[in-house]
Amino acid sequence: MAFIDDIKRSYLQGSMLLRIIFINIGVFLLLHIVAIGALLMNSSADDVIQWVKLPSDLWLLLKRPWTLVTYMFVHYGLLHILFNMLWLYWLGRIFMEFFSAKQLTGLYLLGGWGGAVLYLLATNLLPYYTSHSDVYFLCGASASVVAIVVATAVYAPDYKIGLLFLGEVSIKWIAIVTVLISVLSLEGGDNVGGNIAHIGGAIVGAWFALRIKRGRDITRPLNAAIDGVVGLFNGRSWHWPKFKKPVRPSAQQHDAAPSSQHRRPADTVSEEELDVILGKIKQAGYDALTDEERDKLFKVSRQRTP
Questions:
Q1: Are residues 41 and 188 in the same domain?
Q2: CB within 8 A of 198, min separation 6: which ones?
Q3: Residues 147 and 108: beta-carbon distance below 8 Å
Q4: Residue 236 within a domain
Q5: Mind listing the pLDDT tens digit of every residue in the chain (306 residues)?
Q6: Which of 40, 146, 147, 189 satisfies CB 3.0 to 4.6 Å to 205 for a cystine?
Q7: Are residues 252 and 147 in the same domain?
Q8: Are residues 81 and 119 in the same domain?
Q9: Could you give the CA distance from residue 292 to residue 283 in angstroms, rounded to a whole number?
Q10: Do 212 and 280 share a domain, yes or no?
């Protein structure tokens, strides 16, 4: 069908941000189709959907470990998915001005897991939940989206966004208001668990941005593992990603001229450092770089010149 072919083409040619949005919309439509089928079979739609939501009961979670991933792509209410996807598209595009598609994917997953961890801790330790024997279920991309929002705000706090009736507003205020709403919403309401997950996502987002500023990318191990799995399906042999600590050169190595095969650690520039430098250029221009950062950029261009 031409319609299906158009969707497949848009997915394959789209950015990683659009692919994540496509996946969320696809899961939303699939769940509603399954729910209609369950209804026609005189069954409850909730019984079906709960198989992809994150349960608060740890024993049930052990039986359904896939929900740690599926829950962050699951929406059932129309307003729920509409708000989350608009929020993701709007702030995700700004995130992509400073970071790569892989970092967006990694942070989406890590933010969702950060929200899941805080949610599970709260539902199994806080008297608000433990005083009841009910099993609660979490779903939605909110924790992942909040992680992306906070990461962008921490990394580029003075980035301006035009808002209707308000004019230009720094993104840091949008992130502050977002987190503040989640915190204040903990006082009652029907979505206490969801707001706890938002806070978990915000913590991961801030952690990502602060580590990036120090030249470390917390999404790198996850993305390396994803690349390994994808490579396995593409016919390449599996290799566990290795992350070695930099080795301090000996005095003999320090005095000797570095060869092309054994280059000193000081002469190499990591991908994380390069991402930070390129992000700084996008934000403030080349003139904002320090002499050390310009030297690193020159080394990268020299290493990659054939």
A1: yes
A2: 115, 142, 143, 146, 178, 179, 182
A3: yes
A4: no
A5: 666 666 667 667 678 899 999 999 999 999 989 888 888 887 777 777 889 999 999 999 999 999 999 999 999 889 999 999 999 999 999 999 999 999 999 999 999 999 999 999 999 998 888 887 788 899 999 999 999 999 999 999 999 888 877 788 899 999 999 999 999 888 766 788 889 999 999 999 999 999 999 989 999 999 888 888 877 766 665 555 554 443 444 444 334 334 333 333 445 667 777 777 777 776 666 666 676 776 677 666 655 544
A6: 147
A7: no
A8: yes
A9: 18
A10: no
Among 1, 3, 22, residue whose Cα is nearest residue 12: 22
Position 264 in a domain: yes
> What domain range is 33 assigned to?
2-224
The CA-CA-CA angle for residues 170, 173, 176, to 5°, reads 150
**Interatomic CA distance for residues 66 and 26, integer angstroms:** 18
Indicate the residue among 160, 191, 224 that finishes a domain. 224
24 and 91 share a domain? yes
Instruction: Round to whole Å and give the CA distance between 247 and 25.
Output: 46
Same-domain status, 146 and 98: yes
Are 140 and 80 a contacting pair, CB within 8 Å? yes
Number of separate domains in the chain: 2
Residues 189 and 259 both lie in one domain:
no
